[in-house]
Input
Amino acid sequence: MAEKSRFSMRSVSVTIAVICIAILACGGQWLPNVFDKMQVFEFKSLGVKLVPALVNLLTGALLFSVSYLLYRPAKAALTRTLDSAGASERGRTMVLRTTQLLYWGITLFVIASVVAPEVLGKLFLGISVFTAALALALKDIASDLFSGTLLQVTRRFNVGDDIAMIGLDVKGKVVDIGYLSTQIKNTEGLQIVPNREMWGKSVKILKVTSMIILPPGYEPKPTAKPSEAEQKPKLFKLLTD
Output
């Protein structure tokens, strides 16, 4: 059912894109002709105002359709890249969700700049001031979050490794690598270190825990038992020896 729904949305996006391209290729000239054929003055003046708005709406619909068609291949390529890099499940989820928000955020911003540039200009000014103030107040949290993403993807060290931070009084076994901090357990207890420190400082790995990263959906094959014909020669050899 989900595959059928995605196929339908893809077909609708392709249809909208083709229709918008065909209409925009005419330069929107057919709309004034329609209103000119109407003898009522109000319709003519209304047509002069509606033509630019309709052209902008068609352009926005075209951009949205193209963005929707490109989203799934781009997501699949990013997923393969993260799998080949050996990213953890938490890191892969974090990167995919962040990329998804950025992708659709940029798409909506571009579409809004085409459809309603005047309204967007005033709104963007207010959002920019608010975002700058918020980023200044939460710069440490943003730095920890970004560093946590890098630690999850690049795998400088893994959970279970014994490490020592150069320049910090931190030494012990890595218990968890979170979004904002890393937990390290030692004889003194549990230390919680901000991820910006874990990424910005040099790390000395004292003991590596062997880990085999399996691809998503991997299922081990059942071990086949030897047949009686294979067991008899071994049993005969054991008795004769």
The two ends are 64 Å apart (CA to CA). The mean pLDDT is 72.
